């Protein structure tokens, strides 16, 4: 029967594969030398022999490249006449041989060298693994005790490759091979979060075992390096935040160890700092962290050596340029000013604790401490944070309540509205009942020598004397945060002059508002500008820039439209206006320099003064 059987390619393939599985490559080699001496598969058998028997990988690489070249030539010849053994069939048998060689490697060394050879030669296995990725992974693992599972060769996909890399990562972390683990994670496009965090935890353990962890400077420097390392390795915001939060829970809030409270506060601040980097920011989680930070601040204040005195945030100075403290580092990562937390809803009366509210989970001493800290926040101008903290602890602060009522009045809310507190309603009612007796040609204002209050006496009359009077009454009652109330009153009156709502004017930045005042044609513009600059605390640099901009605008020729919408000024009035503009800035030299820069950029002949001189 064998004599009559017609042998074809499937039979030859079956024989090829069976003999190779039995490691009878020499038998195939002799057969091909006798019957198919021109076949490219003869070269592949030589590759097999060089690798598996002689470990001569460099020579085997040359042979493999020769085989690939012969296949290319064979494809070109196919256009003229068909070969005895078709190219696709040869490629399939060669792929089977290479795959089998990988499975038959006896040692990790052989496996690694063969992978390297195949990757460098650009060999590919039909429906097989990515040899370049496997070779790169094996190179990374070269000096580690962890090896690649050969099962990946038979069942390969990107998901399977990543699954194998996860297994390898676990083994590497167990053996503290973190640098290798990071490279594996990068190769497999896997997050390095856990690797980097586990390395940090091991370093922490080593510091404790060496007895260095008791030193405050060591701990401060360690947490700083952790943060920098997480940034460098681009770990996820959630992972970094979770790490610092977990470490904060491990720090004991000991009365006898105030540094522990400081350390916990720093760790919570770092946790919040990382959450802020998220998009979108998880506000609820951020608020929980901020609440815990404030617990630390309250505890510190309660047990501070000087009762009644508040140590302002970040007031502790470091002794040298390099030395750090928990406090100074926490200040560097403070997130209380982020936009996600400073939103209008915290300045609403809805949900703000009432006067009879009982502070949650706070002792009498802690309530007193919180009151001092809230006052400090208001003096700093941190009204949003003060309002949030009051809500966190159901704490009623009269000053914060006054500030929120000021804002509601300026926004146009009725004082008899359902959210106004009874105490404030009574205060406003008393002010309202006295107003008719005090009204007269010169409306009574708050008495103060500061320019913050001088705004109230500027202009002829307020469009809504009732609101102004109510705002003045609240300003007079406020102890901490009075400047914020004054600013509210000031911006309210300014909004009426400019013909817009308080909410619109409050949304604009200070420089834009000053620009509008400077370009105003109202008779009292100068006093208003003076009051605004002082009220908003604008820097001389910004004022000088705006003054120079306005002077240049007014110097432009009428053809530019300067005088189309405003009455013409005679030379004396114009000169007086320029002098007043210059006097608005404390640094006159700075104004001159800014003005020279702007005027020099205007083409000659386009300034009104140059045309007048020319005429």
Automatic annotation (TrEMBL):
Basic and acidic residues: compositionally biased ranges: 432-441
GO cellular component: a single term: synapse
Single Gene Ontology BP annotation: axonogenesis
Segments traversing the membrane: none
Ranges for region Disordered: 431-464
Bias (Low complexity): 448-464
GN (gene name): LOC113430637
Protein name: Spatacsin-like
